[in-house]
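Z., the sequence and structure:
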Amino acid sequence: MQTHNASPRMPAQKIQQPARAAVPLTPPPHVQPTQTAVSAPVPPAPRQPYAPPAQSASVPYNPNPQAPPMPAAPVARHAPIETTALDVLRATADEDSAADIRRSLAKRLSDVICIPSSQLAPQERHMAGDVLVELLRDADIDLRESVAKRLVMLNEAPRTILVILAKDDIRVARHVLEKSKSLTDSDLIQIIKKVSSEHRLMIAQRRVISDAVSDAIAQFLEEDVVITLLKNKGASFSETALQRILTVSRQNKVFIKWLVKREELRPSHGLTMFWWAGADDRKKILNRFGVTRNVLQDSCQDLYPRAAKDGWSDAGVRKALQFIERRQRNRAAIDRSEYGSLEAAIDLAEKDGISRNLTEEISYMAGVKPATGAQILTDRGGEGLAILCKAPGLKRQHVEKIWRALRRPVLDVDGNMHEDLARVMRTYDSISTDKAQTVLRYWNWSLTSSLNAEVLRHIRDGVIPKEEDFGAAAITAALVFGNRNTT
């Protein structure tokens, strides 16, 4: 049997294989080279740094064979994938392409929806709208806003899309809430209940707002929203909305300024709000609701002798005719009074101070109930005193006499008329007797005509009676006589 000896020429034979011919193997520096022969002369190749042979993933290369073997690296289940810059650019390009397609599709669908009804069947418009809704559910805010801007001026835009956009982020919703004409009152009321204060503020700025929508907004009593609504000349107010705002205006006095300017404000609102309004707003209220009653008086003049003949048996007729009557002073009360005249009672009050008995006597002789007189005399502002004196024809000096009777400052530190008294005097000078009578009689009617046991119970419990059950006067009495410590 022929024996094959290991020969140093065997590696050279492998070097001559085509795959390795261009790069001859160079031993590492620490290994002594052995003589290597080749079958044909080969030009010497330049020396290159040694590159270790490929190793198994589990056996790392150890440059020192005499050293202990290095610990094996954990076997990877999958080989790591190297991401190149080109791969990132391609992925970004794909994403941009997808976003562009989505934007283009949204624009095309919006274009279809915007086609005039003469050229597009309503069924196809709504189908396009349904597809667009689904497309917008996970769209970015820029795309949603662009669609909102595009559809907002379209009168025939599908309401489903508009309602969804109106509930969206305020950046998107503001376009629809403030300008869209396609949203119905029902849509707006539904939206108002489910959105933020910012959304309701946008609705309050709409060019036209029905009383039903105003009522829905007013339920939240958000200060900036309510003020915006009151300032909006295109907004209409229901009685419910006005009453709700009026009720809280005692604490939120900022509402008074704008309530006074609303055309819907009734005398019952204004002359009730007077009691907690500031000086400037009181002046506006008196100017607006201090009117004459000439038409009422002329139309009812013949009823007085008939009611007197009947003995004033009907309490409702008696109260109504007392409000309309021209004559302010109560002659019967003057005849019964121990003081003999209204002026004499005021003179005594200036000297001795106001008392409960004098309050009642002055009130009766001035033609009002003691509850109305007490409300006027205890009012901190004092403008009511000017009305109380002007209506029954008292002279200007009697305003100051009552002021002194209440122990209020007449002069300031410089010896001039005190600012508060001067303001009351200006009120007295600026209103006519007829108009002062209207205001005083309305106060008397609204504060006292409905004070029955049930209304008094409402006042005691802090509950505002419903107008449809008890009338406007009951509401005025509850608002004025209730929560007196908050004014």
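Residues 294-486 form one domain. The mean pLDDT is 81.

Let me know what you think.
H.
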